Fold these 3 entries.
Entry 1:
Amino acid sequence: MMTNNELLKRREQAVPRGVATAYPIFAEHAKNSELWDVEGNRYIDFVGGISVLNTGHSHPAINQAVSQQIEKFSHTAFQVVAYEAYIELAEKLNKLAPGPTPKKTIFLSTGAEALENAVKISRAHTQRPNVISFIGGFHGRTIFTSGMTGKNEPYKTGFGPFPGEIFHVPFPAATYGVSESDSLKALSQLFKASISPESVAAIVIEPVQGEGGFHAASREFFQSLRTLCDDHGICLVCDEVQTCFGRTGTLFASEQIGIEPDLITAAKSLAGGYPLSAVIGKAAIMDAPNPGGLGGTYSGSPVACAAALAVIEVIEQSQLLARSQAIGEELACALIELKSTLPALGIGDIRHKGAMFAFDLLDSQGSPDAQKTKSLLWHAQQNGLLLLSCGLYGNTIRIMVPLTVSDAILQEGITLLANSLKAVTGTA
C-alpha cells in the first residue's frame, strides 16, 4: 500500500491546485467517529466530512439500506422513470419540516444545486430578479452561489464577474461588532439606495452561519425578517445545508427560530455521506416552476434516497437530537474551563447550538489569531485529532463530531484538543 507522501505526489500531478485539502493524509477506512489513514495512523474525527456524517462513518443501518437499493437498481433518472424511495423521502420531509403550511420537496445532488434551485423557485413564484444574502454566508461554489456567498477569499477570487442581481447585508454577529439592529438597518438602507423590496425574489440566510463562524441570529431577528418578507411578498429561504439533520439539536435549525421559512435547503448529513440535497418548501411556492423547469440527471439518486430514509430512522431510534444537545454542552463545559483556567491559550468567544460548536482564538492583544489557528490544526492532526477552521478572519475552530460518537472517544478528543492548544501556546 502506498504512503501518504507517495499519494500526495500523485495528487499534485493529477488534481488541480484549486481543490484544496486540509491535511496531507489519505483515508484507508473509517468507523463512526474514527478514521485511519493509509499508513495505519488513527484519528478522532471532529470534522465529520464537514458536517456530513452526523450518523458517523459507515453506519451499519445506512450501509444495509444502500446495499439493498443497489441490488434493485442504482439509477433510472427520476425525470424518466420515477421510484418510491424519492416519494417516500419527500413525504417524510414535508411532514418533518417546520411550520403548518403544506409542503413539497425536490431532491438534487449538492448544497449549491439546492440553493440555485431555491432561487429559481423563488423567482418563478415572485416573478422578480433580485436576491439578498448576508456577509459571511456560504452558499456554494457555482458562479451564482459564489455570488451569494459573503466571503471573498478563496471563494470568489479570480472567478468574476458574478451575476449582478445579488446584494449583501451584514449578518448580525456580536463578535464582529454587528448588532441585529445594524443588520436590519442595512437592509432598510439597501432598499433606499439600490433596490426596491418589490424587486426582491428571495432573502437567503443560514439560521447558523457555517463557513462564517457558527454565528446564530435570534428568534426576534428572524421574526423581523419574516414580517419584512410578508409585507413585500419576498420568499424567505433558510439555507440549512450544514445545520440540518440534528447538528443543532433539532432536525432543522429553523425549528428554533420561531417562524416558518418559505423554502429550506438541506444537504450534507441528509443522506449520511451520499450525495443528496433537497429544497423543501410551501407547496404553492414549490409548484411555481413549469414542468421540466426543475431537475437534473442524478438528482434524487435512488441510492442516496434509500440512505436518507435510513438516516431518519437512525436519528429517531438512537435519539441523536438529544445526543446533539449533550455533546454541545460537554464541549462547552470543557472549553469554558480551559478558557478560565488558562487565559494564555487565547480562547475567545465560545458558541454553539446543539453540537454545532465553535470557539475563536485570539492573540495577546485580543485580536483574531489566524496563525495560531493554523498551528492548532497542525498540532492536533499530528496528535491524532482532525479539526477545521472557519470564520471571516480564519481564527475560528469548528467542531462537527458525529452525533454517534461514544463518550470515551468524545473525551479522548477533548483531551487531545486541550493538549494541542497547550502545545501551540507553550502552556503545556
Note: The first helix runs from residue 4 to 14.
Entry 2:
Amino acid sequence: MRRWLPFVVFLALAGLLYAGIRLSEQRDPNAIPSPLVGKPAPGFSLPDFRDPQRLVSNEDLRGQPYLLNVWGSWCPACRLEHPIITEMAERGIVRVIGYNYKDEPEEAARWLRQFGDPYETIIVDADGRRAIDWGIYGAPESFLVDAQGIVLYKHVGPVTWDTVREEIIPRLEGARR
C-alpha cells in the first residue's frame, strides 16, 4: 500500500487541477466582479477633453444610459475595440462617453484624428486619481451605466461584438423596462 500512496496523491492532485481548469473555462475571463455593479456611479468632476475649462460631472451624464469607455493613446488593446465602439455610437446602441486615462493631451488628440472620435463627451483623468473610485486599473475597461446613474455592468479588456450582444444590449433592454 505504501508504494501506491504517491500515485494516489498524484491522481488526486491531477483530478483537482483538471476540475479547476474546467470550471475556469466556463467563466468569462473578462468578467471581473465590480463592487460598483448595482450601485450609483462614483461622483466625479473632470475636465472635458474638447474644452478643458469645462468640468463634466456624473450628474451631467444622467438622463440616458451610457457606456463609459476607458481608453488611452498608449493602449494597444484600445485600438482593437475602437471600431466596435465607433459602430456602437454610430448605430445609436448606447451613448458612448470616453474616459481618457493617464494620457498626454497631444497624443490623445493625435490618436482620435487617426482612428476617429466616436465619443459624445470625453472626460480626462490625466493623473488617474478618479479612476481609483471606479476601480479602474488599466485600459480598456468599460462601464455600462443606466439613466439614473446606476452601474449595470463592468467589462475589462476590449469590447467585442459578443460582449455587445450578450452583455450590453440585454442590460440596456432590462433597464428600459
Note: Helices lie at 5-25, 58-61, 76-91, 105-115, 131-134, 161-176.
Entry 3:
Amino acid sequence: MRTRRIVIAAASAAAAVLLLAGCVDNSTPTGGSSSSGSSSQVSKDAAAAKLLPAAVAKSGSLVIGMDNTYPPNEYKDDNGNPVGWDVDLAKAIAAKLGLKPQFAIAKFDNILPSITGGKDDIGVSSFTDTTEREQQVDFVNYYTAGILWASAKGKTVDPDNACGLKVAVQSTTFEDTDEVPAKSKACTDAGKPAIQVFRFDKQDDATNAVILGQVDAMSADSPVTAYAIKQTGGKLQAAGKTFDVAPYGFPVAKNTGMDKAVQAAVQSLIDDGTYGKILDKWGVSDGAVKTAEINAASKG
C-alpha cells in the first residue's frame, strides 16, 4: 500500500450501505493455486541464507508482518489464509533463506513498529518505499507501482479532470490521504466542484461501488486496479494511464544485515525465474524489476 495515515472516514459508513454482495470475485487466479512459488517449489540459496542475522537463522522462521486486506497483493482466502502475489513472494523468500514463513497479521500502521521493535523480521504489505520511511527501516525494493483509476465499462473518466465526480478509495491509502484530496483541492482552487470521496475499509467494497454505479470511479495502486478490472469480468475499465510510479519495498530493521539477506533472496528469485512466474500468474508483471535494490527512494 502506498503511504497510509489514520483517517476518520465519516463517509465510509454511509456509502457502504449502498453496496450489494457478490460483485467481485477475489478467488485465486484460474490455473494456479495460492501456493505457487511456495517453499515446496523453491530451492534454498545457501549464499543468501549465510547473510541472515544469527538470531533469525537460529529461529528457523521468517516472521512476516502483513495487513491482508489488499487484493491481489495480500488478502484472505475463504478459509482465512493469506493469499496474493506478495504472499507467494514472501513464501519464496523464506524458502530461499531456508526458513519457514510465519505470517503475523496486523493493521498496516502497526507493521513498521513491529519490525523496529524486533517482533517481525520483514514486512510484506505493498509498502511504498519513501525517504521518510527509510528513516525508520531499510527497504529491499522488488516492484514498481503507480496509481491507476478505473470506471464502469463504457463510462469515460479523466483522473485529471474529475471535479464534481464521486470517487471510491480504500481508507487510509495514499489515494485517500493524498492523491484524491490534492486533485479535489485543485478543483476548488479553480472555482470548480470538489471531488466527492467515498471511503471504504476494504478494497473490494470500493470496487463494488463502481460496479454498482454508486460512484463514478475508483483510485488504487496500479496492480490492485488492474486485478479488479480482470476479476470483474469486463465490468470495469482503466480510466487513463498509470501515474505517480514509485517502488514497493520489503521493510526490514536497520543495521541488522537483514537487508542484504533479503536482497540476495529476491535477486535469486528474479534470476531463477520464480519471481517472473509469480507475477505472471497474478497478472501484475507490468511492475516487474530486474534488480533488487536497497532504499531506492533515497537514490532516486
Note: The chain has two domains: 10-21+146-245, 39-145+247-299.
